[in-house]
Design a protein that fits this description.
Helix content: under 10%
Number of domains: 4
CATH superfamily of the largest domain: LCCL-like domain
Number of strands: 29
CATH architecture of the largest domain: Beta Complex
Largest sheet: 5 strands, mixed
Shape: elongated
CATH class of the largest domain: Mainly Beta
Number of helices: 4
Structural class: mainly beta
Distance between the termini: 92 Å
């Protein structure tokens, strides 16, 4: 008994199962529905509630609570039989009777003060305990606000006098009633390794339940972020394939190379998307920041590019006797043509400089 728990109730619990009592409640009662009735949470939003296990009672009154919640009456009519010497003598061991004279043992309590059933080989008893809701503790104060921080940082955790605080750093919900579900923090919490921490804290005291959970998000950096590429490798046409490089940190400077060498702090500074003009090109990049160590070198996948297809003037048509076809290419590119239906290669006739004369009928170039 006396254990404290904090649970999170979903919305829509007012239509839950039956409840008995008026705080405390019999253990078979719906915790979340009872919490709505006690004004701890709303049916529309749900939320965290704290309760404590207490000794069971011989009867439970019916009452009308908040939010339209009503409870039922329950009486253990054979409650007093558990105290009869004859019952204790017949069902309790002699060792028990010597150690606890006049007190009912578990077998007697189960028979007269509980209702036990076996389901799939597991015994379930209700009436063994009760629960009552606790006023929540004051939420702890966590400073600084969420943000990005360089190097080791200290998070200040301040709780009201008499309250203790339990925190988690991985986004899981702490349970101050069970310090195993978190880390008990006194004064501050140190964060030192690179990463993003979702810190959640809850306070509790001997006389109050768990507080509302306070959370902050801290990004800790000692090394500048490794750059990333978009697209990271791929195929395209020269003049139509540009690569953006990003580093996920304001103030970070990206430096890169395109010649196959490793990027360093003295390589060219990235300022705009890079146009890929060489087939098989690979980009190497690092990021630097004045308050951080340089990032590791990031290497893109290869980029495969082809020349821009040539354009024919005219693109098909009819000529008398002969037809001169002009072939235009991107500046610096060459065009090779064939007129016999074969696929042109770099060994075919070059046609971007002088054009291409057609003298046959129905020729495709």
């Amino acid at each position: 008994m006396d254990q404290k728990y904090t649970v999170e109730c979903p919305d829509g619990c007012r239509k839950g199962t039956e409840i008995w009592g008026c705080n405390p409640f019999m253990d078979e009662s719906s915790i979340c529905k009872a919490a709505i009735g006690m004004g701890q949470i709303s049916d529309a939003a749900g939320g965290l509630v704290s309760f404590q296990l207490v000794e069971p009672e011989d009867h439970w009154d019916a009452c009308s609570l908040k939010g339209g919640v009503t409870t039922s009456k329950w009486t253990w009519y054979e409650w007093k039989k558990a105290l009869r010497p004859s019952k204790i003598k017949s069902k309790c061991t002699e060792e028990w009777q010597r150690a606890y004279p006049g007190a009912p043992c578990e077998q007697v309590i189960k028979k007269y003060r509980q209702n036990c059933k076996m389901t799939h080989g597991i015994e379930h008893c209700y009436g063994a305990r009760a629960f009552k809701f606790l006023e929540p503790s004051t939420a702890p104060v966590m400073e600084p606000a969420s943000g990005v921080f360089f190097g080791t940082m200290s998070v200040s955790i301040t709780a009201t006098t008499g309250q203790s605080t339990v925190c988690t750093t991985d986004g899981t919900v702490p349970n101050a009633a069970d310090p195993a579900l978190g880390t008990t923090v006194s004064g501050s919490l140190e964060l030192s390794n690179d990463g993003t921490y979702l810190v959640k804290c809850q306070a509790i005291s001997d006389s109050t339940g768990g507080s509302a959970v306070v959370e902050r998000t801290y990004r800790i950096l000692t090394v500048s972020p490794t750059p990333s590429f978009s697209p990271d490798g791929g195929t395209g046409v020269i003049g139509n394939l540009a690569v953006a490089i990003t580093a996920d940190l304001d103030g970070a400077v990206i430096r890169y190379t395109l010649d196959g060498t490793q990027a360093t702090a003295t390589s060219p500074v990235y300022t705009a998307p890079i146009e890929i003009a060489t087939n098989g090109a690979v980009i190497h990049a690092i990021s630097t920041h004045p308050k951080l160590d340089d990032s590791s070198v990031s290497t893109s996948a290869p980029y495969l590019v082809t020349a821009v297809p040539p354009v024919f003037f005219p693109d098909g048509g009819v000529g008398v006797g002969r037809l001169l076809v002009k072939v235009e290419t991107r500046a610096g590119d060459r065009a090779y043509c064939s007129s016999d239906g074969s696929i042109p290669t770099s060994s075919s006739t070059r046609c971007d400089d002088v054009g291409f004369e057609i003298t046959q009928v129905c020729v495709g170039v």
